[in-house]
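User: Some background: our group keeps a shared notebook of sequences we're curious about, and every so often someone picks one and asks for a predicted structure to add to the entry. Today it's my turn. The entry only has the sequence so far, pasted here. Could you supply the structure so I can complete it?
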Amino acid sequence: MANHKSSLKRIRQDKVKAEHNHYYAKTMRNAVRKLRAMTNKEEAAELYPKVQKMLDKLAKTNIIHKNKAANLKSSLCRHISSLA
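Assistant: Of course. Here's the predicted structure to add to the notebook entry:
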């Protein structure tokens, strides 16, 4: 266990930040899952900008890697264009 006040505070802060990051990462995963499950092209195209914005924000704040965000956006765009 930590012996210094500053390290105890750092542990508390890290726990809060991890919980915050987990919430947003889970929300992003659910949004991506929802978009991939869609079969209607118009609905998917309507939801895509919201998911794209979410991915960009999470990449900017280092919750997910910027390349992961780019890969997800690319695969979702391909999914939408393949819908009939």
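Suggested note for the entry: The two ends are 58 Å apart (CA to CA). The chain has a mean pLDDT of 95.
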